[in-house]
Amino acid sequence: MNNNYFEVKRSGINSTFQDQGRNNLYHVGIPFSGAMDNRNYLLSNKLTANKLNYPVLEFAYQGPLLKYHGDKIIIAITGDVNFTIKKNNNLINGTCYKSLILENGDELDIISTNKSVYGYLAVSAKFDLEYQWYSYSTNTKANIGANNGKKLEVGQKISISNIKKNLEIKKLDYRNTKIEKIRIIKGTNFDYFSEKGKKTFLEKEFTVSKLSDRMGMRLQGPKIENIFENNIKSEGLVKGVIQVPADGNPIIMLSDHGTIGGYPKIAVVISADYDKLVQLTPGSKIKFKEVDLRSALTLFKMYDLETQNLISQI
């Protein structure tokens, strides 16, 4: 056991290691995975002076309770998160988007996310994890990736190495915002749906179901009418594609989605809106807005530029 490690005293609801995911493996059935909220992932690494592609700990709703053992380190938490640090029985309320010092014996309690789903913990070191298919990302459905493809477990010890010695406090004035409508482009099976079905999809409101996870987000609302075929030959899927099964309720494919599927695809969420989409909690309302491909590309360039500007401010 490395002398520098975290002891997991509470695992949290869905705590996994993630980075920017796996490339070019869809053809062998391996999904992309990676951090759900890419912007918050990148900012957490920057706040700890890491390389931007380092693995971090992603948690959903309630995060882990971790006791730290070892040399002094810097940590940073991004997202909209409640957390505390216990130092010598003194409880300190944590601040997101600010690097903080952890010392031997300190306890980090990631209590909950606020009206959002995902948060991120980065450290000024490197988690000692197995590297598989050019990524540390964990996919618990397939049991692949770091941590033997599993969530954190109580009693587990997480070793870290390459601790940075020049500890520098960094911070960013940043607030997560919500979006009024999720923008989409037409899917490959858009014309499988009736004019009424298309209008329903683009004009009516849907609710995020409790049956949502890293694989997909199920929506509930008015039935989207299909006039062609409810089941088609399985085709390739991409992150953000929206399938409509026979019950007429859309399913949005997220980072751990299967690589093929046999439900008609009515639309695809544009990449610029994906981070905000995945932070929508069960019960949240969604409305969609159609944009063309040129607009989607422009919006992504704007999103990417804003992300890079935020990174440069740290």
In short:
The chain has 314 residues and is of the alpha+beta class. Helices cover 14% and strands 31% of the residues.
Structural commentary:
The structure is a single chain. This protein is α+β, with helices and mostly antiparallel strands and 314 residues long. The chain is built from 4 helices and 22 strands. Strands 21-14-15-18-17-20-13-22 form an 8-stranded mixed beta sheet. The protein has a 7-stranded antiparallel beta sheet with strand order 7-6-9-4-1-12-11, with no helix packed on it. It has a 5-stranded antiparallel beta sheet with strand order 2-3-10-5-8, covered by helices on one side. Strand 17 (241-243) and strand 18 (251-253) form a beta hairpin. The longest helix is centred in the last third of the chain and has 20 residues, at 293-312. The relative contact order is 0.17. The model has no long low-confidence stretch (mean pLDDT 95).
Secondary-structure blueprint:
Layout: E1 5-10, E2 16-18, H1 38-47, E3 56-60, E4 65-69, E5 73-78, E6 81-87, E7 90-93, E8 100-102, E9 107-113, E10 118-123, E11 126-127, E12 157-161, E13 182-186, H2 195-203, E14 206-212, E15 216-220, E16 235-236, E17 241-243, E18 251-253, E19 260-261, E20 265-269, H3 274-278, E21 285-286, E22 288-290, H4 293-312
Parallel strand pairs: 13-22
Antiparallel strand pairs: 1-4, 1-12, 2-3, 3-10, 4-9, 5-8, 5-10, 6-7, 6-9, 11-12, 13-20, 14-15, 14-21, 15-18, 16-19, 17-18, 17-20
